[in-house]
Each structure stands twice: as structure tokens, then as C-alpha cells.
Amino acid sequence: xxxxxxxxxxxxxxxxxxxxxxxxxxxxxxxxxxxxxxxxxxxxxxxxxxxxxxxxxxxxxxxxxxxxxxxxxxxxxxxxxxxxxxxxxxxxxxxxxxxxxxxxxxxxxxxxxxxxxxxxxxxxxxxxxxxxxxxxxxxxxxxxxxxxxxxxxx
Length: 154
Description:
The chain is of the alpha/beta class. The protein has helices at 16-28, 41-49, 75-84, 102-111, 123-139; strands spanning 8-12, 35-38, 59-66, 93-97, 115-118, 144-146.
């Protein structure tokens, strides 16, 4: 286990405004973690399973903030892929999305998400919710994920 401050945050969000707001409020909550942004699900899957820039035998703690409604590959598909692979199944995934549909919430938990947060529509409430999320992330520990693409089956 790595200390929380060593955990890389993978932010998967197709709305650039939401991505900026999320990062800004995580920083306001005192997070200094590396944040790597992806604007669709396919890009984060490629990053994790085929294009990891730090391909080595090292391991890195990662946590994902995942939107559901994205082009190319949606959040549920990303969640299903990550949770089905032995090397990534324990990565904490926080779904952060605009939907509050009970069926979607149930589906995400069934697929293995760790936390489901509905984004408030109101700007101030959204900012406050992300800031509180940042406080949670600040005290969390994440398991290590191999950074060697050869050890992960695409």
C-alpha cells in the first residue's frame, strides 16, 4: 500500500468544464496528487492496458474518478473492463456523474464501483461536493497497480 499522497488520480471526464472544476476543488481540498485526465473511456483503457508511459516492473497506486456518460466508451464499460482484470480489479473507482437513476447506481455497484456520487447541478453545490470528495481522497489508501503493460492482458 502506498500513502495517499502517492496515489495517482485518473480523472475520466468528457466535459472540460467539469474536469477543470473537479481538479480545482480537489486542489482546494489540499490534494497534491498527480491527476491524469482522459476525455473518454477508451483513452483511459488504452493508458492502463497498452500505452502506459511508465512501462517498467514498478507498481503505482491509482484511484479513478469516472463519469458515466461519455463518447466512444462509456463509464460502465470502463468499470466492467477494469474490474474484470486481475491486475486492476482492486483499483478504487469513484463514479462521479450527473445521473441519479437508481438503476444506474445499482448497475455501477454491481460492476464493482467503490463509491457513486451524483454531481449536483448547482455550481456551488458541485464545487462543495468535489471539495468534500477531495478530503476523503486525502485520507484514503489505494492498492498498487502494475505499471508494466506486459503484465496486463488487454
